[in-house]
């Protein structure tokens, strides 16, 4: 059974946050970067070639948000690691896909089928206590379970953030003190990787930096991307939920039905399906199963609470190609599993995370406010 994630609290300027982050999570960051550096080398990309690729990519990231680059430099300094390793943690998909080398082109399938996830968002009118629930299963490399953390970011010029992420990443899934939450699911179409765009992980961080749900929406909708992705956006204050199915050059909005949104790893928008070609299903053949299974399990409940959502996230029907995936051999990741299962109630500042839930892990609570359980670890490294 995987251990619960440590919670790290960081604050200050972008560089100060990064340095505190790197110093406080150096062990987890090194474990996480090891996975991807090994994969890059297996595809023929040397350390020097990676550094060269990152140097070429950084100006585009800086155009998207210069503070993201500053924060990543701080993480690298605090963890005593090359900047390229930290950028890799925040743009792993883009860097692996966009390397532009024959060895990588031959190995493009190594990153296909990633983030084969299931998202559930229940609007306030469907919950027993009128509190929005935003939940997610993250399916990825089982080996990543020991290199994830929870970040609590105290914002100097924006909202506070609570995010689950691979150590070294600026964000993956989470919510902020303005009640904005975001999760992401893998999608694929024939338009992917024809141009360079902002890293998907940094788009999620940009969303969580916003005070306004409309600006959070714009951060997803209007940003050029390298590849497809599905981003579920919710706002606890109003109960409004949008699902944004993103192709690299176009975004399609899917609205919840009857107070409920469920999304796995295939395109749902009829407009999207009329304009592009779905190419991800062969690598995620259970996506339609997971979508329908989750909807059918929730359908009998007029009111849907945490217990009902948790039961769906832990469902093993159809295993191993189930909503909750046990560790299984994969030609794409080596060993795939549901690495983490998240339940979030942003209005209450609450997140629950179960690491490797198929092994029986309990959901561990984390809070955006003070009074965190003993597993928390406030970082006090000098900035």
How would you describe this protein?
With 383 residues, the protein is of the alpha+beta class. A nine-stranded mixed beta sheet has the order 10-9-8-7-6-5-4-1-16. Strands 2, 3, 11, 12, 13, 14 and 15 form a seven-stranded antiparallel beta sheet that branches. Helix 1 runs parallel beside helix 4 (66-79). The two termini are 35 Å apart. It is globular. A hairpin with a 3-residue loop joins strand 12 (328-330) and strand 13. The protein has helices spanning 14-24, 26-42, 47-64, 66-79, 83-90, 92-97, 102-106, 200-208, 213-221, 270-275, 287-298, 306-313, and strands at 7-10, 118-122, 133-141, 148-153, 161-166, 173-176, 180-186, 229-235, 241-247, 250-254, 260-263, 328-330, 334-345, 350-355, 364-367, 376-378. Helices cover 32% and strands 24% of the residues.
List descriptors.
single chain, 383 residues, alpha+beta, 7-stranded antiparallel β-sheet, 16 strands, 24% strand, disordered C terminus
Task: Provide a quick synopsis of the model.
With about 375 residues, the protein is an alpha+beta fold.
Morphology:
globular
User: Which oligomeric form is depicted?
Assistant: single chain
Radius of gyration: 19 Å
Give the overall average pLDDT. Answer: 91
Helix coverage percent: 25-40%
Please count the helical segments: 12
Structural class, please?
Answer: alpha+beta
Low-pLDDT stretches: 103-113, 373-383
How is the main sheet built?
A: 9 strands, mixed
H/E element order = EHHHHHHHEEEEEEHHEEEEHHHEEEEE
Distance between the termini: 35 Å
What amount of the residues lies in strands?
Answer: 15-25%
Trace the largest sheet across and list its strands. Answer: 10-9-8-7-6-5-4-1-16
The tally of beta strands, per DSSP, is 16
């Amino acid at each position: 059974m995987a251990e619960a994630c440590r919670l790290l609290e960081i604050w200050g300027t972008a560089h100060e946050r990064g340095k505190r982050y790197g110093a406080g999570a150096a062990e987890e960051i090194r474990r996480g970067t090891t996975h991807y550096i090994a994969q890059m080398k297996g595809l023929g990309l040397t350390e020097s070639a990676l550094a060269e690729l990152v140097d070429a990519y950084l100006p585009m990231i800086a155009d998207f948000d210069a503070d993201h680059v500053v924060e990543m430099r701080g993480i690298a300094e605090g963890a005593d690691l090359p900047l390229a390793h930290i950028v890799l943690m925040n743009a792993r998909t883009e860097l692996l896909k966009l390397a532009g080398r024959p060895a990588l082109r031959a190995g493009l399938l190594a990153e296909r089928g990633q983030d084969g996830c299931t998202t559930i968002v229940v609007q306030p009118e469907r919950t027993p206590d009128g509190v929005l629930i935003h939940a997610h299963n993250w399916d990825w490399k089982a080996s990543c379970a020991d290199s994830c953390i929870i970040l609590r970011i105290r914002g100097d010029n924006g909202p506070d953030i609570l995010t689950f992420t691979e150590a070294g990443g600026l964000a993956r899934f989470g919510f902020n003190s303005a009640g904005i939450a975001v999760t992401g699911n893998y999608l694929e179409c024939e338009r992917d990787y024809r141009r360079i765009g902002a890293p998907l992980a940094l788009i999620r961080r940009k969303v969580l930096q916003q005070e306004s749900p409309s600006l959070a929406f714009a951060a997803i909708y209007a940003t050029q991307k390298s590849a497809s992705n599905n981003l579920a956006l919710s706002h606890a204050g109003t109960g409004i939920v949008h699902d944004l199915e993103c192709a690299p050059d176009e975004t399609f909005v899917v609205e919840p039905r009857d107070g409920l949104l469920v999304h796995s790893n295939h395109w749902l928008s009829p407009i999207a399906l009329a304009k592009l070609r779905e190419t991800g299903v062969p690598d995620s053949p259970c996506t339609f199963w997971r979508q329908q299974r989750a909807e059918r399990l929730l359908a009998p409940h007029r009111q849907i609470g945490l217990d009902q959502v948790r039961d769906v996230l832990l469902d093993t029907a159809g295993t191993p190609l189930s909503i909750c995936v046990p560790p299984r051999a994969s030609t794409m990741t080596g060993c795939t599993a549901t690495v983490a299962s998240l339940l979030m109630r942003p209005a209450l500042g609450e997140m629950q995370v179960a690491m490797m839930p198929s092994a029986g892990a309990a959901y561990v609570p984390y809070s955006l406010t003070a009074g965190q359980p003993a597993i928390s670890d406030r970082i006090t490294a000098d900035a």
